[in-house]
Fold this sequence. Notes:
- Keywords: Signal.
- By secondary structure, the chain is an alpha/beta fold.
- The chain folds into four domains: 39-317, 3-Layer(aba) Sandwich (Aminopeptidase); 351-392, no CATH class; 398-510 and 569-577, no CATH class; 516-560, no CATH class.
- It contains 18 helices and 20 strands.
- β7 (213-217), α9 and β8 form a beta-alpha-beta unit.
Amino acid sequence: MLITLLLATLLSTGTPAQGKPDLKTPYEQGNGNQTATYEEAIAWYQKLDEAYDEVKMLPYGMTDAGRPLHLVIVSTDKDFDPASIKQKNKRVLLIQNGIHPGEPEGIDATMMLARDYLQNKKLRKQLDNVVLAIIPVYNIGGALNRNSHTRTNQNGPEVYGFRGNARNLDLNRDYIKTDSRNAQTFHQIFREWDPDVFMDNHTSNGADYQHVMTLIATQHNKLSPTLAKYLSGKMVPTLYEGMKQDKFPMVPYMNHAGDTPDQGIIGFMESPRYATGYTTLYNTIGFVPETHMLKPFDQRVKATYKLMENMIETIHRDADEIGKLRQQAKEQTLTQKQFALNWKLDTTKVTQIPFLGYEAKYKPSEVSGQERLYYDRKSPYSKKINYYDEFVPTVTVEKPVAYIIPQAWHEVTERLKLNKVHMQQLKRDTTLTLDSYYITDYKTSQRPYEGHYLHSEVQVETRRMPRQFFKGDYVVYLNQEANRFLVETLEPQAVDSYFNWNFFDSILMQKEYFSSYVFEDLAAQYLKQNPELRKQLEARRKQDPEFAKNARAQLDFVYRNSPHYEFTHQLYPVGRLMQEVKLPL
Protein backbone atom coordinates (compact mmCIF):
# COMPACT_ATOMS: atom_id res chain seq x y z
CA MET A 1 0.00 0.00 0.00
CA LEU A 2 2.88 2.38 0.88
CA ILE A 3 4.59 1.66 -2.46
CA THR A 4 1.33 2.35 -4.30
CA LEU A 5 0.90 5.68 -2.52
CA LEU A 6 4.51 6.67 -3.25
CA LEU A 7 4.10 5.86 -6.94
CA ALA A 8 0.86 7.83 -7.07
CA THR A 9 2.59 10.82 -5.46
CA LEU A 10 5.43 10.71 -7.99
CA LEU A 11 3.00 10.55 -10.90
CA SER A 12 0.89 13.38 -9.55
CA THR A 13 3.90 15.69 -9.21
CA GLY A 14 5.19 14.76 -12.67
CA THR A 15 8.57 13.60 -11.23
CA PRO A 16 9.90 10.38 -12.79
CA ALA A 17 10.55 7.48 -10.46
CA GLN A 18 14.29 7.50 -11.25
CA GLY A 19 14.65 10.81 -9.35
CA LYS A 20 15.12 13.29 -12.19
CA PRO A 21 12.45 16.02 -12.22
CA ASP A 22 10.13 16.11 -15.21
CA LEU A 23 11.44 19.18 -17.00
CA LYS A 24 10.26 18.57 -20.52
CA THR A 25 10.05 21.96 -22.21
CA PRO A 26 7.01 23.35 -24.03
CA TYR A 27 8.97 22.92 -27.28
CA GLU A 28 9.55 19.23 -26.54
CA GLN A 29 5.89 18.75 -25.71
CA GLY A 30 4.88 20.28 -29.04
CA ASN A 31 5.18 19.14 -32.63
CA GLY A 32 8.66 20.57 -33.33
CA ASN A 33 7.24 23.76 -34.78
CA GLN A 34 6.15 25.52 -31.61
CA THR A 35 8.03 27.83 -29.27
CA ALA A 36 7.47 28.60 -25.60
CA THR A 37 5.54 31.73 -24.72
CA TYR A 38 7.12 34.22 -22.34
CA GLU A 39 4.94 32.98 -19.48
CA GLU A 40 5.79 29.34 -20.24
CA ALA A 41 9.52 30.08 -20.33
CA ILE A 42 9.52 31.89 -16.99
CA ALA A 43 7.34 29.21 -15.38
CA TRP A 44 9.68 26.50 -16.70
CA TYR A 45 12.78 28.23 -15.27
CA GLN A 46 10.98 28.60 -11.95
CA LYS A 47 10.54 24.81 -11.96
CA LEU A 48 14.23 24.40 -12.79
CA ASP A 49 15.12 26.72 -9.90
CA GLU A 50 12.92 24.71 -7.53
CA ALA A 51 14.34 21.39 -8.71
CA TYR A 52 18.05 22.24 -8.46
CA ASP A 53 20.01 24.06 -5.77
CA GLU A 54 22.57 24.78 -8.51
CA VAL A 55 20.09 27.13 -10.20
CA LYS A 56 18.88 30.54 -9.14
CA MET A 57 16.51 32.76 -11.10
CA LEU A 58 17.01 36.42 -10.22
CA PRO A 59 14.60 39.23 -11.16
CA TYR A 60 16.56 42.37 -12.06
CA GLY A 61 15.14 45.75 -13.08
CA MET A 62 11.99 46.46 -15.05
CA THR A 63 11.50 46.40 -18.81
CA ASP A 64 9.32 48.63 -20.98
CA ALA A 65 6.62 45.96 -20.75
CA GLY A 66 6.33 46.53 -17.00
CA ARG A 67 7.74 43.10 -16.16
CA PRO A 68 11.16 42.37 -14.66
CA LEU A 69 14.05 41.07 -16.68
CA HIS A 70 15.13 37.73 -15.26
CA LEU A 71 18.60 36.26 -15.12
CA VAL A 72 19.02 32.52 -14.54
CA ILE A 73 22.34 31.39 -13.06
CA VAL A 74 23.53 27.78 -13.36
CA SER A 75 26.44 27.31 -10.95
CA THR A 76 27.28 23.74 -9.98
CA ASP A 77 29.02 24.70 -6.74
CA LYS A 78 25.93 26.76 -5.77
CA ASP A 79 27.87 30.03 -5.71
CA PHE A 80 25.74 32.84 -7.13
CA ASP A 81 27.94 35.78 -6.19
CA PRO A 82 29.70 37.19 -9.29
CA ALA A 83 32.64 38.53 -7.28
CA SER A 84 33.19 35.18 -5.60
CA ILE A 85 32.89 33.35 -8.93
CA LYS A 86 35.59 35.60 -10.42
CA GLN A 87 37.87 34.96 -7.43
CA LYS A 88 37.54 31.23 -8.14
CA ASN A 89 38.82 31.92 -11.68
CA LYS A 90 35.65 30.60 -13.29
CA ARG A 91 34.47 31.83 -16.66
CA VAL A 92 31.00 33.32 -17.12
CA LEU A 93 29.04 32.68 -20.32
CA LEU A 94 26.09 35.06 -20.73
CA ILE A 95 23.43 33.68 -23.11
CA GLN A 96 20.72 36.07 -24.24
CA ASN A 97 17.53 34.97 -25.99
CA GLY A 98 14.53 36.67 -27.52
CA ILE A 99 15.97 40.09 -28.28
CA HIS A 100 13.94 39.57 -31.49
CA PRO A 101 11.16 37.26 -30.25
CA GLY A 102 10.20 36.34 -33.80
CA GLU A 103 13.57 34.55 -33.85
CA PRO A 104 12.90 32.31 -30.86
CA GLU A 105 14.98 29.15 -31.26
CA GLY A 106 17.44 30.30 -28.61
CA ILE A 107 14.60 30.48 -26.07
CA ASP A 108 13.78 26.80 -26.54
CA ALA A 109 17.32 25.51 -27.10
CA THR A 110 18.68 27.17 -23.96
CA MET A 111 15.98 25.67 -21.74
CA MET A 112 16.92 22.17 -22.88
CA LEU A 113 20.62 23.00 -22.62
CA ALA A 114 20.41 24.20 -19.01
CA ARG A 115 18.50 21.06 -17.97
CA ASP A 116 20.79 18.67 -19.83
CA TYR A 117 23.95 20.18 -18.34
CA LEU A 118 22.53 19.57 -14.88
CA GLN A 119 21.31 16.04 -15.56
CA ASN A 120 24.06 14.65 -17.82
CA LYS A 121 27.24 13.84 -15.84
CA LYS A 122 29.53 14.24 -18.85
CA LEU A 123 28.09 17.64 -19.72
CA ARG A 124 27.88 18.72 -16.10
CA LYS A 125 31.63 18.22 -15.71
CA GLN A 126 32.20 21.12 -18.13
CA LEU A 127 30.50 23.44 -15.63
CA ASP A 128 33.27 22.87 -13.08
CA ASN A 129 34.92 26.05 -14.34
CA VAL A 130 32.07 27.63 -16.32
CA VAL A 131 29.01 29.42 -14.93
CA LEU A 132 25.99 29.92 -17.17
CA ALA A 133 24.09 33.20 -16.95
CA ILE A 134 20.91 33.08 -19.04
CA ILE A 135 18.48 35.82 -20.01
CA PRO A 136 15.42 33.67 -20.87
CA VAL A 137 13.62 36.38 -22.87
CA TYR A 138 15.14 39.85 -23.28
CA ASN A 139 12.42 41.58 -25.32
CA ILE A 140 9.44 40.79 -23.11
CA GLY A 141 7.11 43.28 -24.79
CA GLY A 142 7.83 41.77 -28.20
CA ALA A 143 7.40 38.25 -26.83
CA LEU A 144 3.93 39.14 -25.55
CA ASN A 145 2.96 40.50 -28.98
CA ARG A 146 2.53 37.11 -30.67
CA ASN A 147 1.41 36.48 -34.23
CA SER A 148 1.98 34.18 -37.21
CA HIS A 149 2.66 36.61 -40.05
CA THR A 150 5.25 39.34 -39.36
CA ARG A 151 8.25 37.07 -40.02
CA THR A 152 7.26 36.92 -43.67
CA ASN A 153 10.46 35.24 -44.84
CA GLN A 154 10.64 32.63 -42.08
CA ASN A 155 9.74 28.94 -41.97
CA GLY A 156 8.08 28.53 -38.56
CA PRO A 157 7.40 28.30 -35.74
CA GLU A 158 3.61 28.43 -35.90
CA VAL A 159 3.32 31.45 -33.57
CA TYR A 160 6.07 33.80 -32.41
CA GLY A 161 6.76 37.23 -30.97
CA PHE A 162 7.42 40.59 -32.63
CA ARG A 163 10.70 42.38 -33.33
CA GLY A 164 9.79 45.71 -31.71
CA ASN A 165 9.58 45.94 -27.93
CA ALA A 166 6.77 47.58 -25.95
CA ARG A 167 7.97 50.99 -27.27
CA ASN A 168 8.48 49.55 -30.76
CA LEU A 169 12.25 49.82 -30.35
CA ASP A 170 14.62 47.33 -31.92
CA LEU A 171 16.58 46.40 -28.81
CA ASN A 172 19.56 45.33 -30.90
CA ARG A 173 20.06 48.98 -31.79
CA ASP A 174 19.65 50.27 -28.24
CA TYR A 175 22.74 49.22 -26.31
CA ILE A 176 24.59 52.53 -26.42
CA LYS A 177 21.70 54.98 -26.60
CA THR A 178 19.80 53.03 -23.90
CA ASP A 179 16.33 54.42 -24.52
CA SER A 180 14.61 51.29 -23.20
CA ARG A 181 14.32 50.04 -19.66
CA ASN A 182 15.40 46.69 -21.06
CA ALA A 183 18.80 48.13 -22.00
CA GLN A 184 19.12 49.91 -18.67
CA THR A 185 18.62 46.60 -16.89
CA PHE A 186 20.95 44.79 -19.27
CA HIS A 187 23.75 47.22 -18.38
CA GLN A 188 23.17 46.42 -14.72
CA ILE A 189 23.42 42.69 -15.41
CA PHE A 190 26.37 42.97 -17.77
CA ARG A 191 28.51 45.21 -15.58
CA GLU A 192 27.74 43.18 -12.46
CA TRP A 193 28.53 39.78 -13.99
CA ASP A 194 31.30 40.91 -16.40
CA PRO A 195 30.88 37.88 -18.70
CA ASP A 196 33.92 36.46 -20.44
CA VAL A 197 31.84 35.34 -23.43
CA PHE A 198 28.46 36.57 -24.63
CA MET A 199 26.00 34.86 -27.01
CA ASP A 200 22.94 36.57 -28.47
CA ASN A 201 20.79 34.01 -30.35
CA HIS A 202 19.12 35.12 -33.62
CA THR A 203 17.62 34.00 -36.96
CA SER A 204 18.87 35.48 -40.23
CA ASN A 205 17.17 37.18 -43.13
CA GLY A 206 18.63 37.18 -46.64
CA ALA A 207 19.77 34.68 -49.27
CA ASP A 208 18.94 30.99 -49.50
CA TYR A 209 21.73 28.45 -48.98
CA GLN A 210 22.31 24.99 -47.51
CA HIS A 211 23.76 26.03 -44.13
CA VAL A 212 21.46 25.96 -41.11
CA MET A 213 23.75 28.13 -38.98
CA THR A 214 25.77 31.26 -39.71
CA LEU A 215 27.83 33.15 -37.17
CA ILE A 216 28.87 36.68 -36.34
CA ALA A 217 31.93 36.74 -34.10
CA THR A 218 33.13 39.96 -32.49
CA GLN A 219 34.97 41.90 -35.19
CA HIS A 220 38.55 40.93 -34.41
CA ASN A 221 39.99 44.30 -35.48
CA LYS A 222 38.05 45.93 -32.63
CA LEU A 223 39.29 43.53 -29.95
CA SER A 224 42.55 43.94 -28.09
CA PRO A 225 45.35 42.15 -29.97
CA THR A 226 45.64 39.37 -27.37
CA LEU A 227 41.96 38.49 -27.49
CA ALA A 228 41.76 38.94 -31.26
CA LYS A 229 44.55 36.42 -31.83
CA TYR A 230 42.85 33.85 -29.61
CA LEU A 231 39.41 34.47 -31.12
CA SER A 232 40.46 34.18 -34.77
CA GLY A 233 43.24 31.64 -34.36
CA LYS A 234 41.74 29.21 -31.87
CA MET A 235 38.20 29.80 -30.62
CA VAL A 236 36.37 30.37 -33.91
CA PRO A 237 38.13 27.48 -35.72
CA THR A 238 37.21 25.18 -32.82
CA LEU A 239 33.54 26.17 -33.06
CA TYR A 240 33.51 25.67 -36.82
CA GLU A 241 35.11 22.23 -36.53
CA GLY A 242 32.73 21.19 -33.75
CA MET A 243 29.66 22.24 -35.73
CA LYS A 244 30.98 20.44 -38.79
CA GLN A 245 31.28 17.23 -36.77
CA ASP A 246 27.75 17.80 -35.48
CA LYS A 247 26.49 17.94 -39.10
CA PHE A 248 25.83 21.68 -38.98
CA PRO A 249 28.71 23.18 -41.00
CA MET A 250 28.80 26.95 -40.48
CA VAL A 251 29.76 30.00 -42.50
CA PRO A 252 30.04 33.63 -41.43
CA TYR A 253 26.86 35.68 -41.47
CA MET A 254 25.71 36.37 -45.03
CA ASN A 255 26.53 40.07 -45.32
CA HIS A 256 26.77 40.11 -49.12
CA ALA A 257 29.41 42.00 -51.08
CA GLY A 258 27.08 41.78 -54.10
CA ASP A 259 23.54 40.62 -54.83
CA THR A 260 24.19 36.96 -53.98
CA PRO A 261 26.56 35.08 -51.66
CA ASP A 262 28.72 33.68 -54.44
CA GLN A 263 29.92 37.25 -55.08
CA GLY A 264 31.55 37.20 -51.66
CA ILE A 265 30.59 38.23 -48.12
CA ILE A 266 31.81 40.97 -45.79
CA GLY A 267 32.49 40.63 -42.09
CA PHE A 268 30.02 42.47 -39.90
CA MET A 269 31.49 45.58 -38.28
CA GLU A 270 29.18 45.89 -35.31
CA SER A 271 29.16 49.34 -33.76
CA PRO A 272 28.17 49.74 -30.08
CA ARG A 273 24.47 50.11 -30.87
CA TYR A 274 24.52 46.31 -31.36
CA ALA A 275 24.86 43.74 -28.59
CA THR A 276 28.34 42.46 -29.45
CA GLY A 277 29.52 45.92 -30.45
CA TYR A 278 28.67 47.04 -26.92
CA THR A 279 30.11 44.01 -25.10
CA THR A 280 33.40 44.40 -27.01
CA LEU A 281 33.91 47.76 -25.28
CA TYR A 282 34.54 45.79 -22.08
CA ASN A 283 36.75 43.09 -23.63
CA THR A 284 34.01 40.47 -23.67
CA ILE A 285 34.16 38.03 -26.59
CA GLY A 286 30.79 38.20 -28.33
CA PHE A 287 28.88 35.97 -30.76
CA VAL A 288 25.63 36.38 -32.65
CA PRO A 289 24.48 33.00 -34.03
CA GLU A 290 22.11 33.44 -36.97
CA THR A 291 20.20 30.33 -37.99
CA HIS A 292 18.82 30.27 -41.52
CA MET A 293 15.23 31.52 -41.71
CA LEU A 294 14.06 29.00 -44.33
CA LYS A 295 15.20 25.88 -42.49
CA PRO A 296 12.56 24.00 -40.42
CA PHE A 297 12.26 25.29 -36.87
CA ASP A 298 13.37 22.01 -35.28
CA GLN A 299 16.64 22.12 -37.26
CA ARG A 300 17.24 25.69 -36.16
CA VAL A 301 16.65 24.79 -32.52
CA LYS A 302 19.01 21.83 -32.74
CA ALA A 303 21.73 23.88 -34.47
CA THR A 304 21.46 26.59 -31.79
CA TYR A 305 21.70 23.93 -29.08
CA LYS A 306 24.77 22.37 -30.71
CA LEU A 307 26.56 25.70 -31.07
CA MET A 308 25.99 26.53 -27.39
CA GLU A 309 27.21 23.03 -26.50
CA ASN A 310 30.37 23.58 -28.53
CA MET A 311 30.76 27.01 -26.96
CA ILE A 312 30.63 25.66 -23.41
CA GLU A 313 33.05 22.86 -24.27
CA THR A 314 35.49 25.39 -25.77
CA ILE A 315 35.25 27.77 -22.79
CA HIS A 316 35.73 24.82 -20.41
CA ARG A 317 38.82 23.69 -22.31
CA ASP A 318 40.34 27.18 -22.54
CA ALA A 319 39.06 28.60 -19.25
CA ASP A 320 42.45 29.61 -17.87
CA GLU A 321 43.65 31.00 -21.19
CA ILE A 322 40.51 33.09 -21.68
CA GLY A 323 40.81 34.46 -18.15
CA LYS A 324 44.45 35.46 -18.60
CA LEU A 325 43.86 37.02 -22.02
CA ARG A 326 40.90 39.06 -20.78
CA GLN A 327 42.94 40.35 -17.86
CA GLN A 328 45.71 41.36 -20.26
CA ALA A 329 43.15 43.07 -22.48
CA LYS A 330 41.73 45.01 -19.55
CA GLU A 331 45.21 46.17 -18.59
CA GLN A 332 45.88 47.21 -22.18
CA THR A 333 42.66 49.24 -22.19
CA LEU A 334 43.85 51.13 -19.12
CA THR A 335 47.11 52.18 -20.76
CA GLN A 336 45.94 52.53 -24.38
CA LYS A 337 46.60 56.04 -25.75
CA GLN A 338 44.94 56.00 -29.19
CA PHE A 339 41.40 54.80 -29.90
CA ALA A 340 39.74 54.19 -33.26
CA LEU A 341 36.38 55.92 -33.74
CA ASN A 342 35.53 54.93 -37.31
CA TRP A 343 36.44 52.07 -39.62
CA LYS A 344 36.40 51.08 -43.28
CA LEU A 345 36.70 47.74 -45.05
CA ASP A 346 40.14 46.83 -46.41
CA THR A 347 39.23 45.29 -49.75
CA THR A 348 42.86 44.38 -50.49
CA LYS A 349 42.73 41.61 -47.89
CA VAL A 350 40.54 38.65 -48.75
CA THR A 351 40.38 34.98 -47.82
CA GLN A 352 38.36 32.19 -49.35
CA ILE A 353 35.96 30.06 -47.34
CA PRO A 354 33.94 26.94 -48.22
CA PHE A 355 30.29 27.68 -48.93
CA LEU A 356 27.31 25.41 -49.59
CA GLY A 357 24.86 27.34 -51.71
CA TYR A 358 22.12 27.13 -54.29
CA GLU A 359 22.41 28.61 -57.75
CA ALA A 360 20.91 32.08 -58.05
CA LYS A 361 18.66 32.35 -61.09
CA TYR A 362 16.12 34.75 -62.55
CA LYS A 363 12.64 34.31 -63.96
CA PRO A 364 9.63 36.55 -64.72
CA SER A 365 7.72 37.70 -61.64
CA GLU A 366 4.07 36.65 -61.46
CA VAL A 367 3.42 39.91 -59.58
CA SER A 368 5.27 42.55 -61.61
CA GLY A 369 6.22 40.74 -64.76
CA GLN A 370 9.80 41.90 -64.22
CA GLU A 371 12.82 39.65 -63.72
CA ARG A 372 13.03 38.36 -60.15
CA LEU A 373 15.71 36.54 -58.19
CA TYR A 374 15.23 33.03 -56.85
CA TYR A 375 17.50 30.28 -55.54
CA ASP A 376 17.19 26.92 -57.23
CA ARG A 377 17.29 24.21 -54.57
CA LYS A 378 17.57 21.62 -57.33
CA SER A 379 20.97 23.11 -58.15
CA PRO A 380 23.07 22.95 -54.97
CA TYR A 381 26.78 23.68 -55.14
CA SER A 382 29.89 23.59 -52.97
CA LYS A 383 32.64 26.09 -53.70
CA LYS A 384 34.99 28.66 -52.22
CA ILE A 385 33.79 32.26 -52.00
CA ASN A 386 35.58 35.48 -51.06
CA TYR A 387 35.40 36.64 -47.47
CA TYR A 388 36.43 40.20 -46.57
CA ASP A 389 36.98 40.54 -42.85
CA GLU A 390 39.69 43.14 -42.33
CA PHE A 391 38.84 46.68 -41.30
CA VAL A 392 41.14 49.65 -40.79
CA PRO A 393 40.49 52.77 -38.71
CA THR A 394 39.71 55.99 -40.55
CA VAL A 395 39.40 58.29 -37.52
CA THR A 396 41.42 57.94 -34.33
CA VAL A 397 41.64 60.07 -31.23
CA GLU A 398 44.13 60.55 -28.43
CA LYS A 399 42.70 59.65 -25.06
CA PRO A 400 42.42 62.68 -22.74
CA VAL A 401 43.41 62.57 -19.10
CA ALA A 402 39.78 63.26 -18.26
CA TYR A 403 36.49 64.43 -19.70
CA ILE A 404 34.71 67.32 -17.96
CA ILE A 405 30.93 67.01 -18.38
CA PRO A 406 28.65 69.86 -17.33
CA GLN A 407 25.97 68.52 -15.00
CA ALA A 408 23.22 69.93 -17.22
CA TRP A 409 23.65 66.97 -19.56
CA HIS A 410 21.98 64.55 -17.17
CA GLU A 411 20.80 62.16 -19.91
CA VAL A 412 24.45 61.49 -20.63
CA THR A 413 25.67 61.22 -17.03
CA GLU A 414 22.78 58.91 -16.16
CA ARG A 415 23.91 56.51 -18.89
CA LEU A 416 27.47 56.64 -17.62
CA LYS A 417 26.27 55.75 -14.13
CA LEU A 418 24.36 52.77 -15.52
CA ASN A 419 27.68 51.54 -16.87
CA LYS A 420 29.35 51.93 -13.48
CA VAL A 421 31.63 54.66 -14.78
CA HIS A 422 33.62 56.21 -11.94
CA MET A 423 32.83 59.93 -11.87
CA GLN A 424 33.74 62.71 -9.47
CA GLN A 425 32.13 66.14 -9.08
CA LEU A 426 33.78 69.52 -8.76
CA LYS A 427 33.44 70.94 -5.25
CA ARG A 428 33.58 74.56 -6.41
CA ASP A 429 33.29 76.68 -9.54
CA THR A 430 36.45 76.37 -11.60
CA THR A 431 37.90 77.82 -14.81
CA LEU A 432 39.90 75.28 -16.78
CA THR A 433 41.97 75.68 -19.94
CA LEU A 434 41.35 72.57 -21.99
CA ASP A 435 40.62 71.24 -25.47
CA SER A 436 37.10 71.80 -26.74
CA TYR A 437 35.43 70.77 -29.97
CA TYR A 438 33.37 72.96 -32.24
CA ILE A 439 31.06 70.98 -34.51
CA THR A 440 31.88 72.28 -37.99
CA ASP A 441 29.84 69.87 -40.12
CA TYR A 442 27.61 66.80 -39.90
CA LYS A 443 24.91 64.95 -41.81
CA THR A 444 21.51 64.08 -40.34
CA SER A 445 19.19 61.32 -41.48
CA GLN A 446 15.99 62.56 -43.13
CA ARG A 447 13.85 59.87 -41.50
CA PRO A 448 13.72 58.76 -37.87
CA TYR A 449 15.83 55.76 -36.91
CA GLU A 450 14.96 54.03 -33.64
CA GLY A 451 13.42 57.19 -32.24
CA HIS A 452 16.25 59.52 -33.33
CA TYR A 453 17.41 61.53 -36.32
CA LEU A 454 20.88 60.06 -36.38
CA HIS A 455 23.93 62.22 -37.16
CA SER A 456 26.93 61.00 -39.14
CA GLU A 457 30.09 62.24 -40.93
CA VAL A 458 30.80 64.62 -38.06
CA GLN A 459 33.63 67.12 -38.51
CA VAL A 460 35.14 68.98 -35.57
CA GLU A 461 37.59 71.80 -34.93
CA THR A 462 39.65 71.56 -31.74
CA ARG A 463 40.30 74.77 -29.82
CA ARG A 464 42.32 75.11 -26.66
CA MET A 465 40.44 77.65 -24.56
CA PRO A 466 39.51 78.58 -20.99
CA ARG A 467 36.05 77.47 -19.94
CA GLN A 468 33.95 77.98 -16.87
CA PHE A 469 32.77 74.87 -15.03
CA PHE A 470 30.64 74.81 -11.91
CA LYS A 471 30.32 73.03 -8.63
CA GLY A 472 28.68 69.67 -9.33
CA ASP A 473 30.03 69.26 -12.88
CA TYR A 474 31.48 65.81 -13.53
CA VAL A 475 35.11 64.83 -13.94
CA VAL A 476 35.64 61.45 -15.59
CA TYR A 477 39.23 60.21 -15.56
CA LEU A 478 40.24 57.74 -18.25
CA ASN A 479 42.05 55.37 -15.94
CA GLN A 480 39.28 52.80 -15.65
CA GLU A 481 37.83 49.68 -17.23
CA ALA A 482 35.23 51.80 -19.01
CA ASN A 483 37.83 53.78 -20.99
CA ARG A 484 36.76 52.51 -24.37
CA PHE A 485 33.06 52.93 -23.57
CA LEU A 486 33.78 56.54 -22.62
CA VAL A 487 35.68 57.30 -25.82
CA GLU A 488 33.02 55.68 -28.03
CA THR A 489 30.21 57.66 -26.38
CA LEU A 490 31.82 61.05 -25.62
CA GLU A 491 33.89 61.59 -28.78
CA PRO A 492 31.39 63.12 -31.25
CA GLN A 493 33.04 61.54 -34.30
CA ALA A 494 32.51 57.99 -33.03
CA VAL A 495 29.83 56.11 -34.99
CA ASP A 496 27.51 55.69 -32.02
CA SER A 497 28.53 58.69 -29.94
CA TYR A 498 25.98 60.37 -27.75
CA PHE A 499 26.31 63.36 -30.06
CA ASN A 500 25.28 61.26 -33.05
CA TRP A 501 22.30 59.95 -31.08
CA ASN A 502 21.07 63.55 -30.56
CA PHE A 503 21.74 63.94 -26.85
CA PHE A 504 23.55 67.25 -27.51
CA ASP A 505 21.36 68.65 -30.27
CA SER A 506 20.45 71.83 -28.41
CA ILE A 507 23.99 73.17 -28.94
CA LEU A 508 23.35 73.18 -32.70
CA MET A 509 20.77 75.94 -32.52
CA GLN A 510 21.83 79.56 -32.32
CA LYS A 511 20.06 81.42 -29.51
CA GLU A 512 20.92 85.09 -30.16
CA TYR A 513 20.67 86.98 -33.49
CA PHE A 514 20.93 90.56 -34.80
CA SER A 515 18.62 93.07 -36.42
CA SER A 516 20.20 94.11 -39.70
CA TYR A 517 19.41 97.83 -39.47
CA VAL A 518 20.97 98.02 -35.99
CA PHE A 519 24.00 95.85 -36.69
CA GLU A 520 24.88 97.74 -39.90
CA ASP A 521 26.59 100.54 -37.95
CA LEU A 522 28.27 98.16 -35.51
CA ALA A 523 29.54 96.01 -38.36
CA ALA A 524 30.93 98.99 -40.25
CA GLN A 525 32.76 100.19 -37.14
CA TYR A 526 34.11 96.70 -36.45
CA LEU A 527 35.47 96.38 -40.01
CA LYS A 528 37.30 99.71 -39.60
CA GLN A 529 38.90 98.42 -36.42
CA ASN A 530 39.74 95.04 -38.02
CA PRO A 531 41.13 95.60 -41.53
CA GLU A 532 42.13 91.93 -41.85
CA LEU A 533 38.49 90.89 -41.49
CA ARG A 534 37.54 93.47 -44.16
CA LYS A 535 40.04 91.80 -46.53
CA GLN A 536 38.44 88.41 -45.83
CA LEU A 537 34.99 89.86 -46.55
CA GLU A 538 36.12 91.38 -49.85
CA ALA A 539 37.83 88.16 -50.90
CA ARG A 540 34.67 86.22 -50.12
CA ARG A 541 32.61 88.62 -52.27
CA LYS A 542 34.95 88.08 -55.22
CA GLN A 543 34.87 84.31 -54.87
CA ASP A 544 31.11 83.98 -54.37
CA PRO A 545 28.78 86.12 -56.58
CA GLU A 546 25.69 85.00 -54.69
CA PHE A 547 27.29 86.04 -51.41
CA ALA A 548 28.17 89.41 -52.95
CA LYS A 549 24.48 90.00 -53.74
CA ASN A 550 23.26 89.02 -50.26
CA ALA A 551 23.51 91.87 -47.74
CA ARG A 552 22.23 89.77 -44.84
CA ALA A 553 24.81 87.04 -45.54
CA GLN A 554 27.63 89.62 -45.48
CA LEU A 555 26.38 91.06 -42.20
CA ASP A 556 26.19 87.52 -40.82
CA PHE A 557 29.81 86.94 -41.89
CA VAL A 558 30.92 89.96 -39.87
CA TYR A 559 28.63 89.00 -36.98
CA ARG A 560 30.09 85.47 -36.74
CA ASN A 561 33.61 86.91 -36.63
CA SER A 562 32.82 89.51 -33.99
CA PRO A 563 32.49 89.35 -30.18
CA HIS A 564 28.71 89.66 -30.58
CA TYR A 565 28.40 86.10 -31.89
CA GLU A 566 27.69 83.59 -29.11
CA PHE A 567 30.78 81.46 -28.55
CA THR A 568 28.67 78.54 -27.30
CA HIS A 569 26.99 77.97 -30.68
CA GLN A 570 28.07 74.50 -31.84
CA LEU A 571 30.49 74.22 -28.92
CA TYR A 572 30.47 70.58 -27.80
CA PRO A 573 29.91 70.78 -24.04
CA VAL A 574 32.25 67.97 -22.97
CA GLY A 575 35.77 69.28 -22.40
CA ARG A 576 38.96 67.26 -22.91
CA LEU A 577 41.54 67.74 -20.17
CA MET A 578 44.84 66.80 -21.80
CA GLN A 579 47.20 67.14 -18.83
CA GLU A 580 47.11 66.43 -15.12
CA VAL A 581 45.70 69.39 -13.20
CA LYS A 582 44.86 69.55 -9.53
CA LEU A 583 41.09 69.85 -9.40
CA PRO A 584 38.79 70.69 -6.46
CA LEU A 585 37.27 67.22 -6.04
